[in-house]
Amino acid sequence: MNNGSASDEPNGPREEVVLRLPPGQAREREAIERALRKQVDDPGEWVVLRRSLDARRHPATVELRVGLGLSTVPKVRGAWRPVEDAPEVIVVGAGPAGLFCALRLIEFGLKPVVIERGKPVRERRRDLVALIREGRVDPESNYCFGEGGAGTYSDGKLYTRAKKRGDWHKALGWFVEHGADPDILVDTHPHIGTNKLPGIIEAMRHRIESCGGEVRFGVRVDGVLRAREGQVTGVRTSDGEVSGQAVVLATGHGARDVFQWMAEADLAIERKPFALGVRIEHPQTWVDRRQYRLAGEEAAASRDLPPAAYSLVTQVEGGGVFSFCMCPGGVIAPCATEDGEIVTNGWSPSKRNNAWANSGIVTTIEAEDLDAAGHDGPLGGVAFQRAVEQACHQAGGGGQVAPAQRLTDFVRRRVSKDLPNCSYLAGLKSVDLTKVLPGFVVDRLIAGILDFERKMPGYLHEEAVVVAPESRTSSPVRMVRDPKACTMPGADGLYPCGEGAGYAGGILSAAMDGMRVAAALAQAVNGEDGAAAAAE
Ligand SMILES: Cc1cc2nc3c(=O)[nH]c(=O)nc-3n(C[C@H](O)[C@H](O)[C@H](O)COP(=O)(O)OP(=O)(O)OC[C@H]3O[C@@H](n4cnc5c(N)ncnc54)[C@H](O)[C@@H]3O)c2cc1C
Question: What is the reported pTM?
Answer without folding.
Answer: 0.94
